[in-house]
Amino acid sequence: MSGAVPAKLAEIRDDFLALERPERLQLLLEFSQELPELPERFADHPDLLERVEECQSPVFIFVEVDDDRVVHLHATAPREAPTTRGFASILVQGLAGLTVDEVLDVPSDYPLTLGLTEAVSPLRIRGMSGLLGRTQRQVRERSA
């Protein structure tokens, strides 16, 4: 079932596609405000976080895979970078509670399906694709 978009990510995509372009940017801004804070345990260990170089803004991620092979994505991005924060939040929320296989099956072009390509720069879309790619790489490494 490769390339299947998990229900939560499909729901997020459909929410974006149901809106006109200006409202899509507003929804992205709302997602940016919903990015969960990093767990306390990362405060003393910033070295655990990986910089997402594809993003213009300083975005850092860390993936945990628990004993049940459920993925937990943590991300941080500055409040002054709402687009990037929004993308990170979409992935954090959309991948929450998914298994290793479900996360690895997310199509790499998912960021292109949100209907944001006309509203934000290709560089920013590439940043979201980088976020997804690095997340999937960390999932592979941590579940091997």
TrEMBL record:
Segments passing through the bilayer: none
Domain Fe-S metabolism associated: start-end pairs: 15-137
Listed InterPro entries: Fe-S_metab-assoc_dom (IPR003808)
Family: Belongs to the SufE family.
Protein name: SufE family protein
